[in-house]
Write a structure and sequence with these properties.
Distance between the termini: 23 Å
Number of helices: 5
Largest sheet: 8 strands, mixed
Helix content: 25-40%
Radius of gyration: 16 Å
Mean pLDDT: 82
Low-confidence stretches: none
Structural class: alpha+beta
Order of helices and strands: HHEEEEEEEEHHH
Length: about 210
């Protein structure tokens, strides 16, 4: 499990770098869009705020922070953010990865998030899955949140561990081609010797 947790850490660290680079190079209109839609509720996950997923069995990304992700493709009017909570001391363990989208739809501000989760206790959601939600990071509902059920539908995810679940979340945001490039670049750097990440890449991006 330690290697799987380390693989997720590597993915998160590289996403953080990509997001901050986008924000640094973004046009004034884009950064203004970020500030007007998110600021006041959340702020950007800073470079020095490293999380401790491999080392600590229980934890989360910093409170009230998001890991901002570059806009995907032609969807220039959206902001994507990621947040993470885990507890590997329980049986079954808990792992929640939130993908939040702040956007304008027909001129109105809108927010929706998706919660990617490991299997839960019992026979209802005992599989890797994704659910819509109105909050971001197990917190109170976000302003302009879409009125959706936070427990249904519970969509099965083709994953068998937290690395594959994380890559499925990335593919949902980036698409297949950009997601494949992102992970391939990661595997040519410091993550090259991480076996769970290599295996997840082969399964998700074959």
């Amino acid at each position: 499990m330690y290697e799987e947790r380390e693989a997720v850490r590597l993915i998160i660290e590289n996403l953080m770098s990509a997001g901050r680079e986008w924000y640094r190079r973004a046009k004034v209109a884009e950064t203004d869009m970020f500030q007007s839609r998110i600021s006041g509720n959340f702020s950007i996950f800073e470079t020095h705020e490293h999380h401790s997923l491999p080392k600590k069995p229980t934890g989360s990304l910093p409170s009230k922070k998001i890991l901002v992700m570059p806009p995907s493709g032609s969807e220039k009017e959206e902001i994507l953010g990621l947040w993470l909570r885990w507890n590997f001391e329980t049986d079954p363990y808990a792992f929640r990865l939130f993908i939040g989208q702040w956007a304008k739809v027909d001129g109105a501000k809108a927010f929706i998030a998706y919660r990617f989760e490991a299997p839960e206790q019992g026979d209802k959601h005992n599989y890797f899955h994704c659910q819509p939600c109105r909050n971001f990071g197990d917190k109170e509902n976000v302003p302009n949140a879409a009125v959706v059920s936070e427990h249904f539908p519970t969509i099965p995810i083709n994953a068998s561990n937290i690395v594959e679940l994380t890559l499925c979340a990335l593919m949902a945001c980036m698409g297949h081609a950009d997601g494949k490039t992102f992970v391939r670049n990661l595997l040519t750097s410091s993550a090259a010797d991480n076996a769970p990440l290599r295996a997840a890449f082969t399964k998700c991006f074959h």
